[in-house]
Structure formats: C-alpha cells, structure tokens
Amino acid sequence: MKSLAFVVLLCLGCGLMTSSFVHKPPHMWSKLILTHHWPSTFCSMEHCHSKFDYWTLHGLWPDKGQECNSSLHFNETLIQDLLPEMQKWWPDLKIPESSRFWKYEWQKHGTCAAKAESLNSQHKYFGKALELYHKLDLDGVMKKCNIVPSETYYTEGKVQILGQIEICFNSDFQLDDCEHSETDTVNFNVKGAGFSVCDHATPVYYPPLKGKLLV
Ligand SMILES: *[C@@H]1O[C@H](CO)[C@@H](O)[C@H](O)[C@H]1NC(C)=O
Ligand SMILES: *[C@@H]1O[C@H](CO)[C@@H](O)[C@H](O)[C@H]1NC(C)=O
Fold first, then answer.
1. Which residues form the catalytic set?
2. Which of 1, 144, 154, 189 could make an S-S bridge to 198, C-beta 3.0–4.6 Å?
3. Distance 32 CA to ligand 1 centre (A)
4. pLDDT tops 60 at residue 78
C-alpha cells in the first residue's frame, strides 16, 4: 500500500513546489498531517455502524505538540456555518450527530495548530482542514488510480487492513513528504486502535462498506 500511496501522492504532487519558510517561532510545528479514516475499518474495531462509504476526515495534526492551550475552549457557535460540511465529511463515526469528536480534535491538535497565525481560530482551523480535504479529494484520486474496495478477501497468509491514510503539508499548506515524520505519525495514531504504518511486504485489504472483516 505504501507504493500505492506514493502513486497517489505523485498524482497530486505534480507541479507543486514546496517553498521554504522564512521565520519559525520556537516550539512551532513544521508539518501538518491530514488524516483520513476508512469508516468500514474503523467501525470494525470500534463496533460502530457506519453508513459512510467514503474516506472521512479524522484530523489535521501538527507534527509538534498536543493539548497546547487549555484556555481555547471549543465553541460550536464559532463554526456554525461549517457544520453541514463537518457533519458530512468529518463525522463522529461512533456518535453520529455529535460534536464530541470535533471538540476532542480541537483540544488535542487544533490548539497546537493555532500557534500559526494562519490557523489561530477555530474557524480557520476547521475551515482549512475541510479545504485541504476537498482539494486532495482522496476518494476521487483512489478511484482514478483504480484503487477501490474489494469484496475479495485474502485467504492465505498474513494480511493487513487499510484503515487510515495520512497526507502531509508544510506550513504553507503545500504537499510535503511524510516519510521524515513517520515515527511522529505512528505516535499520533489513535491509542489502542491498533493502527501502524502499513508493511510494504504484506498484502493490504481494502474492505467494502459491508465487507467481511477479520478481528
Ligand atoms: C492561549 O490562548 C490565549 C487566548 O487566545 C492566549 O492569550 C494565550 O497566550 C495562549 N497561551 C499559549 C501558551 O499559547
Ligand atoms: C461561543 O461563541 C459565541 C460567539 O462568539 C459567544 O457568543 C458565546 O458566548 C461563546 N460561548 C462560550 C461558552 O464561550
């Protein structure tokens, strides 16, 4: 899957140059990780029932810091105009229609992202995540590259199940290589959810919405 993901990144990356930053305040993050959930896999682990058959947003995570500012309370009123989009593309897969997941993501990651002027409000943070998500169009790119869920399951040997795709941006919101922050990425994964970076040598199963799943 690594190599497939690389193809996806190349498809998107053509002609995009990464520019270097000028000033970087201390303790400032340098990369953002846009994470996507595959609801079918997530719900097989978390025992939820998902109606979503597309890659949903999980979060926009700076590569440095967690829970950076407890005085920045989550306030749904500040993103009122974004809520219809949030519900569609950034749903709480475990408790649909709730804002619990956004509050969690804001407190853990958003308050750190907010160290940059470009993301220093809840509206900027959630709005930018949605913007990057749409610009990437992971679903569309995967389909275009003919990477689609399959009913067919590997019956022999070791297999891994695709559950999350992370794509990195620099502080100018240009696509950036994730490789260098691979260890950070692993550390940032959902605690206890069992995600780890896909192994190159092992087949990857990309399950359909109501597919047969291990575990
Ligand atoms: C936390 O946010 C408040 C309100 O915006 C701000 O005044 C304060 O400087 C921030 N603290 C840190 C440590 O960034
Ligand atoms: C949330 O934000 C709105 C709009 O700025 C404000 O009127 C309201 O008092 C805030 N709520 C809380 C709990 O801070």
1. 58, 105, 109
2. 1
3. 20
4. yes
Confidence bin at 205 (pLDDT 50/70/90): confident
Taking residues 168-186, what's their average pLDDT? Answer: 74
- Domains of the chain in start order, with CATH, are 8-205 (3.90.730.10)
Query: What's the CA-to-centroid distance between 70 and ligand 1, angstroms?
Result: 8
Q: In the chain, how long is the greatest CA-to-CA distance?
A: 53
pTM of the complete model: 0.83
Residues lining ligand 2, judged by CB closer than 6 Å?
A: 73, 75, 77-78
Is 71 touching ligand 1 by the criterion CB < 6 Å? yes
Report long-range pairs for 76-82 (Cβ below 8 Å, ≥24 apart). Answer: 76/102, 78/121, 78/122, 78/123, 79/122, 79/123, 79/126, 79/127, 82/123, 82/126, 82/127, 82/130
178 or 4, which is more confident? 178
